[in-house]
Amino acid sequence: MTEVPKPSGLARHGGCWFAADGGQVQIRVDIETGFRPPRRAHPAVRVTELDALAAHLERHGAPVVWCVSRLGQRRFYTQDPVGNRLEFLETIEPADIAGPLAPVGPIGPAASVASVS
């Protein structure tokens, strides 16, 4: 994703916007005074090369907690530097699922993460 400029009328409020696929995918991050990240609510992002993404995040100090669901997906949870829970997932073939299919709980708020650039 690439950071895109916010309109001048909104830029003064802080935050940043990101876009990919010619603007078809967008993430907008804003600032809220007194914000406390939720423990369960989170965005989920479908990706390819999930293992490479997990390795990149771990190299930069972000926690990676793996979970395999019954939905034909591999997934993991992580946190951004201020504690927001993020889920990344990749579709898998049923034959690729190995081991028990048990969900993993949320990452606790005390986890420490480094900034990922």
Shape: globular
Structural class: alpha+beta
Strands of the biggest beta sheet: in what spatial order?
Answer: 4-7-6-5
What's the CATH topology name of the largest domain? Answer: 2,3-Dihydroxybiphenyl 1,2-Dioxygenase, domain 1
Q: What is the ordering of alpha helices and beta strands?
A: EHEEEHEEE
For the record, the count of structural domains works out to: 2
| Named CATH architecture of the largest domain | Roll
Beginning-to-end CA distance, first to last residue: 11 Å
Give the percentage of residues in beta strands.
25-35%
β-strand number? 7
Protein name: Glyoxalase
Domain VOC: 1-91
Organism: Streptomyces albospinus
What does this structure look like?
InterPro entries: Glyas_Bleomycin-R_OHBP_Dase, VOC_core. Residues 1-91 form the VOC domain. It is a single chain. With 117 residues, the chain is α+β, with helices and mostly antiparallel strands. The protein has 2 domains: 1-31, no CATH class; 34-105, 2,3-Dihydroxybiphenyl 1,2-Dioxygenase, domain 1 (Roll), CATH 3.10.180. It contains 2 helices and 7 strands. It has helices at residues 8-11, 50-59, and strands at residues 2-4, 16-20, 25-29, 44-46, 65-68, 73-79, 85-91. The strands form 2 sheets. Strands 4-7-6-5 form a 4-stranded mixed β-sheet, covered by helices on one side. Strands 1-2-3 form a 3-stranded antiparallel β-sheet, with no helix packed on it. The longest helix is centred in the middle third of the chain and has 10 residues, at 50-59.
Defining traits:
2 helices, 2 domains, alpha+beta, VOC_core, 7 strands, 117 residues, 3-stranded antiparallel beta sheet, 2,3-Dihydroxybiphenyl 1,2-Dioxygenase, domain 1, Glyas_Bleomycin-R_OHBP_Dase, globular, disordered C terminus, single chain, 4-stranded mixed beta sheet
